Amino acid sequence: MTPLTITVLGTPVAKARPRMTRSGIAFTPAKTRSYETYARLVAQEEMKAARIGMMEGPLRMTMRVDLPIPSSWSKRKQQQALTGEIRPCVKPDIDNFVKAALDALNGVVFADDKQVVRVEAEKRYALQPKLVVTVAAVEVVRT
Asked: How far apart are CA 78 and CA 125, in angstroms?
């Protein structure tokens, strides 16, 4: 099975906590919903371009979250962020980016996110903010 790489341009949005109405109904915030819809559309286009269908079996997901460098930082500090000397140890947490990506790809790239049995994720700073997700089959290792 060929790996699928999906690049979602723009500042990545992490999964926000569900909110409650006064009547007790839970809902996902609009910013999260719209980002997941956008990522879902990008994934559909990537799958169409790669001419692949929904992935089956156990899968692994590799994810890179490229966050924007704060414009208030000095040129030196911005350069350190680009080289990886400074990493984004700030909110949102990386697991919330993973949740947003899984929810966006659920039902599009794979039937259910329970198929994803391995996840590797990293946050870093970049000139062009984006989310890059690669989904591939898990290699069977026989010992």
From this structure: 9
Q: In angstroms, rounded to a whole number, what is the distance separating the alpha carbons of residues 125 and 123?
A: 7
Please check the confidence at residue 81 and state whether its pLDDT lies above 90: yes
Q: Letter for the amino acid at 47?
A: M
Tokens representing 126 are 């970049």
Whole-angstrom distance, CA of residue 29 vs CA of residue 79: 34
What structural domains and CATH numbers belong to the chain? 4-137 (3.30.1330.70)
Half-sphere exposure of 25 (CA within 13 A, CB side): 3
Bridge partners (DSSP) listed for residue 38: none
CA distances from 108 to 15, 24, 72 (A): 18, 30, 38
Exposure class string for 6-45: b at 16+ Cβ within 10 A, else e: bebeeebbbbbeeeeeeeeeeeeeeebeebbeebbebbee
Structure pTM?
A: 0.90
Average pLDDT on 91-116 reads: 96
| Helices (H) then strands (E): counts for the chain | 3, 6
